[in-house]
Specification:
About 70% of the residues lie in helices and about 5% in strands. The protein is mainly alpha-helical. The chain has one domain.
Length: about 260
């Protein structure tokens, strides 16, 4: 196996690299780390505070909007050539998609059992806290619960996997990879991805006040960092962003299933 097989660094002639960025942006940006940093700042910081606000108020409409914007950014900034270079193309290895699905599902279930073992069903358990946002009634019939689960799972398998993969493993990763190489870019975007998810769990809102859970947050952040590495691995292994999307969608499905039926 080549040393950087799954952390490829784009090596393109200067003219082709410039052509990956739409003309209207070239007077401000190159397709490099500065663009990647700019995108992290304009998406991740607002998203962080919007998620915190949503957790406090119970209104999550703006989170869907952030995901839509994240998904559109590669099409706003990049030409067809640039979109292809970040993985918006047909998979080269379809067998990798099945492995991506199984891996994403397996990792989400592993995180469930880890949370249950360490913290039970308390709010120190990441899935238990995230589950409160689903507003599952205490007294709910099996049929109604299955309907609510289906709607929640379908939403969770579409919005964040598409939006986050096109953003983090797509345009952000590729921007940094052109400047610091594949491994460096993987580390940077995975740190950004994991830190952003502290808003989902870590800084929690319970009893009308905010609490920061140091050790559970550390475990959750490490989990999200590893998940990010896994999503990128399947993007590169399949030769398409679809590998990352499927792995992420399977992870979300597993998480939501655990929240509905195993906590």
């Amino acid at each position: 196996m080549a040393k950087n097989q799954y952390y490829p660094t784009p090596e393109k002639p200067k003219l082709e690299t410039e052509n990956e960025l739409k003309t209207r942006w070239r007077w401000i940006f190159n397709f490099d780390w500065k663009l990647g940093l700019f995108l992290i700042l304009i998406i991740c910081i607002p998203r962080f505070f919007l998620v915190l606000q949503a957790n406090a108020l119970g209104s999550y409409g703006y989170i869907g909007l952030i995901m839509v914007i994240s998904a559109l950014l590669p099409f706003i900034f990049l030409t067809k050539t640039g979109q292809k270079s970040i993985g918006i193309t047909k998979p080269k290895k379809y067998s990798a998609l099945l492995l991506a699905l199984l891996s994403g599902l397996g990792f989400s279930i592993l995180l469930h059992y880890l949370g249950q073992f360490l913290y039970g069903s308390t709010f120190e358990n990441w899935y238990a806290y995230i589950g409160q946002s689903y507003n599952i009634p205490a007294a709910i019939s099996a049929h109604d619960k299955a309907v609510l689960f289906s709607i929640t799972a379908l939403t969770g398998m579409l919005f964040s996997p598409i939006g986050e993969e096109l953003f983090f493993r797509g345009i952000v990763y590729s921007s940094f990879a052109k400047s610091v190489g594949g491994r460096g870019a993987s580390t940077i975007e995975s740190v950004a991805f994991a830190a952003t998810h502290i808003a989902h769990f870590g800084l929690i809102f319970t009893g009308g006040k905010w609490t920061f859970l140091l050790m559970p947050t550390l475990i959750w952040v490490i989990g999200m960092f590893l998940a990010s590495i896994m999503f990128l691995y399947f993007k590169n292994r399949s030769g398409s962003i679809l590998g990352a999307v499927i792995c992420h969608a399977a992870f979300n499905f597993g998480m939501i299933f655990c929240i509905f039926y195993m906590i």
